[in-house]
Request: fold
Amino acid sequence: MPIVIDGPPGDFKARGWYRAGANWAALVDCDRERYRSDPCLVGPVTIGGMAYVCIGVECTRLEKPTIHTGEVIGLVVQDARQ
Reply:
């Protein structure tokens, strides 16, 4: 059964933050089923009510094709005001 991406992601709540090279990454729970190869999260996202631009997604279980709802992922972000 294909995964349907219907609109932008919701407001994520950060479990924590870590440095990801020159940027920061927020540990968040995935909001819905997403393809690991292209989770459709690059672009504008909201974390804790603040606007960011997601420039990458880090996740574990790379052998699995799907990121499941609630799976912890890292959103590598930049401040949307930059």
Remarks:
- Residues 21 and 76 are 9 Å apart (CA to CA).
